[in-house]
Design a protein that fits this description.
Length: 172
């Protein structure tokens, strides 16, 4: 993942734009659990002013993640924007700035970009209606129907504590 390691010391003053394509190899190299496959494009703009670097990146593409309903892979559109401020040295660093060793001068954006991608995935991700695995949907419906009929037929065993509470309620 050397392609996302940026040598900040080598950049000229002003804005520099770097374009990178992210594929399955990128996701495998990160070792992250949320996304393991996908195809995305990252546009990184670094604005240098002396030892301070304002880094803005935009990521767009698709991540391959499991559907919450049928567990088959699905393509999730991704569009993420984020910003990092980095500074060479450790003087004047606060919670919003990243300190970069002045001797090294390299910032690795592999993990920050991965985190932006993972955070842009909706909490609930399911296929579009009618696109889920039909075999899995059938199994889900069968289990759902079996549970419903048990509740209607009263076959589900009742906790005896509820019976005791009903007696107390009826006595009042």
């Amino acid at each position: 993942m050397d392609s996302l390691k940026i040598d900040l010391k080598s950049l000229e003053e002003g804005a520099t734009t770097i374009e990178r394509d992210l594929d399955d190899a990128y996701f495998a190299a990160t070792g992250g659990s949320e996304v393991s496959r996908g195809r995305m494009h990252a546009s990184i703009t670094i604005d240098r002013a002396d030892k301070v670097f304002d880094i803005v990146y935009h990521i767009e593409g698709t991540a391959v993640i499991p559907c919450d309903r049928c567990l088959d892979d699905m393509e999730q559109p991704i569009c993420a924007d984020d910003r990092i401020v980095a500074k060479l040295g450790s003087e004047g660093i606060d919670d919003e700035n990243i300190a970069i060793d002045e001797n090294d001068g390299v910032l690795d954006l592999t993990w920050p970009i991965y985190e932006s991608i993972a955070l842009s995935i909706p909490v609930k991700h399911v296929h579009a209606p009618g696109k889920c695995n039909p075999a899995m949907i059938k199994v889900l419906e069968e289990h759902s129907a079996a549970r419903s009929s048990e509740e209607e037929d009263g076959e589900r065993p009742q906790d005896p504590r509820w019976d005791a509470l009903k007696k107390l309620k009826n006595n009042n």
